[in-house]
Each structure stands twice: as C-alpha cells, then as structure tokens.
Amino acid sequence: MKKILVIPTLSPDDFSETIHLVELKSKKVERININNSDLKDYIGKMVDRGLTDKCLPYGYTKRKQLVPFFAAPHGVTPCGVNEVYIFYQEAPIFRKLNIQTWEVSTLPAGVDSFGFDGDKIFPSTAMSYKDGRMFLFANSAKERYQHLLGKIDCMTFSLYEFIPETKKLAYLDGPFEGLTENIHQMAISESGILVFLDMTLAVKGNFRKWENATDTLIYSEEFQKDYAPREFPKGNMFLYDMNSKRLIKTDAEIPATAHVVFDPRYSNVFYVSMHNISKFMTNVVFHGPGKIVKYEYKDGKISKLGCFTQPNFLRITTHKVFKYRDKALMAVTVFPNTAYLIDCDTMNLYKKVELFQCKLQHDGKYPFLSITNKDKRIALYLDISDDGEWIYLSGPQYIYYLNVESGKIEDSFQFSETSSSAVSHNCLIYQE
Fold this sequence. Notes:
Layout: E1 3-10, E2 17-23, E3 28-34, H1 37-50, H2 66-70, E4 73-78, E5 83-88, E6 90-91, E7 94-98, E8 104-107, E9 120-123, E10 127-130, E11 133-140, H3 141-148, E12 155-163, E13 168-179, E14 183-188, E15 193-198, H4 215-218, H5 221-227, E16 236-241, E17 246-251, E18 257-262, E19 269-274, E20 277-280, E21 283-286, E22 291-298, E23 301-308, E24 319-324, E25 327-334, E26 338-343, E27 348-354, E28 368-369, E29 381-384, E30 390-394, E31 398-403, E32 408-414, E33 428-431
Antiparallel strand pairs: 1-2, 1-33, 2-3, 4-5, 5-7, 6-9, 7-8, 9-11, 10-11, 11-12, 12-13, 14-15, 15-16, 16-17, 18-19, 19-22, 20-21, 21-28, 22-23, 24-25, 25-26, 26-27, 29-30, 30-31, 31-32
C-alpha cells in the first residue's frame, strides 16, 4: 500500500499554486500545477473594495500584499475514497483533489453558487470530516474588512454542513459572536464536540514608518522596542456541543491559539496549541515560548487538565496525538530544528529529536524576529503512520523521516528543488 504525502504550496515568487504528491517509500514526487489566477484576482477585488491602504494588518502598507497571504493553501483533509479537500487562509472557495486521477475541482464552482454573493470566507483548516459530512465555519468578508477598518469590535460566524456527494452546503447554526481575527482550525470528536480556535496574528497599530525598512533594520533592537508595547489580542477558544446546541467561549491564555486535536482514546479530551507569535509582513515575530494545553469537556464545562511548555518551545506549528504501542504520544514541530514527543498522560517530555544542526541566535528578550525563519530546512508540519512507528515532517523544501523507537531522523530528502517552494502549507498522509 502506497503512502502519499500531500503537500499544497504557494510560491513566494509568483504566488502560483502547486500540489506536491510525495510517495514516501520511493521518494517519487509528482506535482500538480493549479491555475489560481481567478482566486488571486477575486481576493484582490474584494480587498480593494473593502479596505484602504491606511488600515491593513500585519504591517502591510498596500492592499495587494494581503492577496498571497489570503490565497495561501493551508489545510488539507481526507474525504471518502481517493479524495482530499484543500482550504486556504481566507478565501471564498476550497478545492477537491482526486489522488488517482489528479483532477482538481473548485467549490463552489462559482463564487455565488452557494448563495452567498461571494461574501463568505472559509478559513484555513476550518472543517472536519465525519460520517460522510463536512462541518465548516464561515464568516463574512464584509465584516472582516469592517473589523479591520475599526468599525466593529468583533465578527460573527456560522456553522454549515457540506455533503460532498451532492455538493450542497446547508446552514446548521449561528450566527455566533466573538470572532476577533480568523477561525484557524476546528476539530470534531466522535461524541459530537466541535472545538475551533480564533487565531490572532495581528499586533495593533500603524507600521508605516517601517514601510521601506530593510531586513537588517527589521531584525534590529530598534524595531523590537517599537513593536513590544503594542497591543496584541489573545483571541478566543470556542466549543460547540452538537448534542445540546450550546456554544462555550473562553479566552485564550496567550496569543495565536491555532490548532486543536482530540485524544484518540477519549472523545471529550483535546489538546490546544498556543503559538505566542505574531505576523509582521512575511516575518514571524516571537513573543515568548508557546504552550500546549490539555482540556476536558465534561458535564457542560471545560476543565484544564495539564500543560506543556519549555523556554525553547517556539512556534510549535503542528501537533498531533497518536497511539504508540501502549502509550499515547503527541508529536510537535518546534522552531527551528526540533521535534518534541510528549507523553499525553503525564504531559511530560518523552523524547526530543534534532532534525538538523542549527544555532538559534537569541538573547532571551521578547519580542524578537529570527533570520533562521527563512531557513528552508525547517519543518513546519507533520503526519504520522497508521502504526505510530514513523513521523513524517515537512517544510518548504525537505521531508524528514523520524523513527519513534530510535528517536532519530533515519532519512530525509529534498522534495522541492527550488529554494522558494512554499510560503504556507500543511501536509497529509494518504494511503492509496
């Protein structure tokens, strides 16, 4: 049985879209190039209509700078036989890929075919597949831009159900209030619990003085002193009980709460990653170590069961929980060159694995930017073999084969020959 790693990417050069299909045993790489000019054009028109250059997030000073960020593929999930769905950072569409035929189709087929007049945004990874149905959250593009303009304090969002066979989207519940930036991910348990996260990446304030700054100046102490006192919202964590139709909103402990996974043994236990990073133009700004918090939902209440963090637990782009022999482990990508394995029962470190040699230059002060973030060797995403024996980590250029028993990188290779293969991507193992 073939194991194929599916890696959607966006080029930082011309913002073209490519799906890499990597056969993990043979290391054969196939590439599907997607014409995404319609998506980029549509997002460009939406941004031009809804915003001005004076109110942009992430340190941007021109509206066109938002287009590649919003159009970047970021979430990929399996659906039925030979099919995966790909979602974007903030876009009015998503795509379906047939692994065997390489056919790629866009949903909705036209931006108005769901009856939203192109106003809905389907955020990255904001879906889960269960029992032949997809559950998606969507928010209004108009509200997103009104929020950026400072006209409203927060946005609303609603829950929808999508049936892949019929390509029909149906409203389930909402609108709900309290969204401050972007629903970055959601997950659903076997018992019908939906957890979804409001990821904040935007620090408040005007950055026009840094509009033409060089990388050298942006990585300087002068920039860090200007950046540090600015307001950085923490965002929210939401839980929706599909049985009681009840929504619970809680404040995030630290900013950039991004990803959630359920424990494979207990359908009411889940793990939330809090990255503690912000975005400035194309740079990642570190505000401190990240953390992963273990929660339980019981009797209508959310309780904190444990937490893992360390001084160098930075960025933590992806975490996944899996069964390894008699244990439940969590694998985490840690910036710049490490994978952590955490014991889910004790929330203690099980193993720490170095992917490649790299020395992070950091004096211990926050916030800080790191030129190492541009290193194409870093691993940002991961997936795990069905037997729990192997972890496959991917980044802009490289794939690493981590053997859990040995706690070592047993193999690695460069799946993309160019140094500018991607600016944002997620990966998924698909077994053919």
